[in-house]
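User: My instructor asked us to take a sequence, write out its structure as tokens, and then describe one feature of it. I'm not sure where to start. Here is the sequence I was given:
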Amino acid sequence: MHDHPHHDSPHHDHGPDNRLDPMEARTRALETLLVEKGLVDPATIEAIVQSCEERIGPRNGARVVAKAWVDPEFAEWLKQDATAAINSLGFAGRQSEHLAALFNDAETHHIIVCTLCSCYPWAVLGLPPSWYKSPPYRSRVVIEPRKVLAEFGVELPEEMRVRVWDSTSEMRYLVIPQRPANTEHLDEEALAALVTRDSMIGTGLVSLPGEAAQ
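Assistant: Let's start with the prediction itself. The structure tokens for your sequence are:
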């Protein structure tokens, strides 16, 4: 975990990054071979990956966030033992055996990264996005988190503290974003629909439909 109240480091562009770790290289080679032999349809693979990355997994996390917003007892349980609280909703699985919940508030904004590889809570966030695994994100967010957040469209007040949490094989994190104002009339299901994957990583904020994207 790293504290970053302010940062004025020189800007480094994300830029393209073609380096693959050994597992990614083997997966890419296997996929290419299967496609060339006509055994799999690349469009089908992409659809499955997109579903896991953007819909199935993140919807689980969104339900956790929404329940924390409406149920103070569940929120307290998340703070004390996120693994047990999340498991109680049926969201247990590989890469999510040990979890911690990080609550954003008016003073602190949390953001997660894995500086060594791509440790990520699959059960609540699905598959990690490609940028989460990229060396530029993994290195820059620790050094200059405010600049990285700005590139995601997140502008925070200067007085707000930014805390960067480094995921490991022993512990993975889920950010509980702040609940948007004027949502008292929304039920848990409607609130969950507002929560995005990026807001649970810390690279996004939650906003109401029609508001500026965060």
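For the description part of your assignment, you could build on this observation: The chain has one domain: 2-6+19-201. Try explaining in your own words what that tells you about the chain.
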